[in-house]
Amino acid sequence: MMDRLPERVRMATAFTAPIVGVEMMRHLAGWPSWHGATLAVWTYVMAAVTTVVVFGAGHPLLIRGLRSYRDRRLNMFSLIAPGVLITYAYSLLALLVPEVFPDSFRVHGHVPVYFEAAAMITTLVLLGQYLEARAESHTGDALAALARLTPTRTCVLRNGREQWVEIDQVHVGDTLQLRAGDRVPVDGAIQQGEAAVDESMLTGEPIPVAKKTGDSLVGGSMVREGAALMVAERVGDQTVLARIIEMVRTAQASKAPIQRVADRVTGKLVPLVLLLALVTFVLWARFGPPPALWYALLHAVTVLMITCPCALGLATPMSIMTGLGRGALAGILIKQAAALETLARVDTLVLDKTGTLTTGRPTLQACLPVEPGHETLLLKHVASLEQLSHHPLAAAIVEGARQWGVTPGTVTNFQSQTGGGVSGIVDGRTILAGRMDWLSERGVSGFAAMQALVEQFEREGRTVIWAAEETRLLGVLVLADELKPRAALAARALQERGLKLIMITGDNPRTAATIGRQLKLDDVAAGVSPGEKSARVQALRSAGHVVAMAGDGINDAPALAAADVGISVGTGTDVAIASGDINLLHGDPMSLVHAIDLSRAVMRNIRQNLFWAFAYNLVMIPVAGGALFPWTGWVLTPMLASAAMSASSLTVIGNALRLRKLDWE
What we know:
Elements: H1 5-28, H2 36-57, H3 59-70, H4 76-96, H5 115-136, H6 141-147, E1 153-158, E2 161-166, E3 175-179, E4 187-198, H7 200-203, E5 209-211, E6 216-217, E7 222-234, H8 240-253, H9 261-287, H10 292-306, H11 310-329, E8 332-334, H12 338-343, E9 348-351, E10 363-369, H13 375-386, H14 392-403, E11 411-417, E12 421-426, E13 429-434, H15 436-441, H16 448-459, E14 463-469, E15 472-480, H17 487-496, E16 500-504, H18 509-519, E17 523-525, H19 530-542, E18 547-551, H20 557-562, E19 565-569, H21 574-579, E20 582-584, H22 590-624, H23 629-632, H24 638-657
Parallel strand pairs: 9-16, 9-18, 16-17, 18-19, 19-20
Antiparallel strand pairs: 1-2, 1-3, 3-7, 4-5, 4-6, 4-7, 8-20, 10-15, 11-12, 12-13, 13-14, 14-15
């Protein structure tokens, strides 16, 4: 029905803009009135241009409106189609056979035409339809981004030789070779070797997990360090990643499009308008002055013209387009305009932790030597080793040393054991850094002196790196994924707006509980898989809540798609960004507050626009029908009806533009 929308919008805009611009200048800027041949030529030009716009670019709108009557499903197009056709037909009649009009309809000897009004309505409605269609076209982006997590080829060991094969040629029981930088192609378990694997796609946790013989691997996860042989256990549509893709596909398919506010109201208004036009015709035909049938038809047409939904057609698109523009300036990209309506009604906000409330990367929090005063030396020794490691914690330590003004030293004989730690000679001393059990296996002692303090850090979900020289303990470094700067402010502001805040994360319960206490969240669930996260969102919706989900990870994609509104954090993965209806470019938690405020302001503005659009109609319809004629002898002419429509449209446009001044700071 609405095929080739971009071309239709471009064509309608190119033809409409010149005639609307000239007509506005003629009537509003004080240009001299045109008469004679000049006016005749210009009128024929407008007629030709409007014919192209209405019946060339806009014919799908007319068909949609006429079908709404056939199917008895009245909506905004039920008024747009007859409004455009009546305005066009009236203007064409005035152009071709002006002698059929009474003298009272003439201005400077000519019957006014309103071709530009028909062209403008058509163009604006086409633009609104294009914006909606463009938003819907993004629904497959999340699935494509998820599919890219699976490599197209992988290395398989067959008959003692390495072979590169297509992913669909991998079978259960095959042995696969994994090296640092590889994505795990299917689900399975390590047969031989050790590796540090980034499973953030599943858990959201940014710190890689140490994997050894017998440990499970999930397809789509990334090998950060080490090398291993794995045995394929689940392939094809049986893998965890394939099930996540299916969850996203199912959730997106289950999202019914939200009916526009204007459609709901117009569906009730159309029968009333048609009834009033019919009553107007009957009353003028029975009681009007001669020629009674002409006046009856004229005033019935005027009633329909005054309800021509120019303002109605502008009410929603103008508010939405202005709101989208204001949001974009603040880094809030709204991919689906319908999400604004739903977001305004949200009462429950589900939040991921890593990357949404926290920075999503570990940072150095503390440097605690066994001997006070040796902080700089301890940090220098450990940073010297970690500068040669590829582990995310290593990068955090090196960056922390730089910020503390500590320069790493030269390292020789560097060694790294995946999942254990690193060692090397720094300034002539043998330094070790890593897990406590790994250091203990190498003869290091003295852990008891710091054990109580370390346990407290671990209860708070922080990561501790132990360091030693030879067998003598030097101290510990403490790292954590800390809260974003304005997370607490955002949480408080959201709760003040009546939202219930629930954090659902794949991270460990200790870390989640600490974040929940710091932000005073209403509820916290930890250690949750992507499927469980999506199921919890669906359960909240089933309980009658309007749910928004905010997240940035691959593991958030099913829940983002399952929520009434998915809000992806722009600093996150492509999958999360594609799954969300709204994207927060800056990743600032306060952007959540701004998005809520924007949605409520836009919906309030739309309701105001609809009120003024319908208020004009309700006041002017009786006047158009001749309600004042028995007492004053005055009737509303089509020219005045057009002026009333223009005034209504200007009111709507002016009100919508107020959204540009929305200020959150």
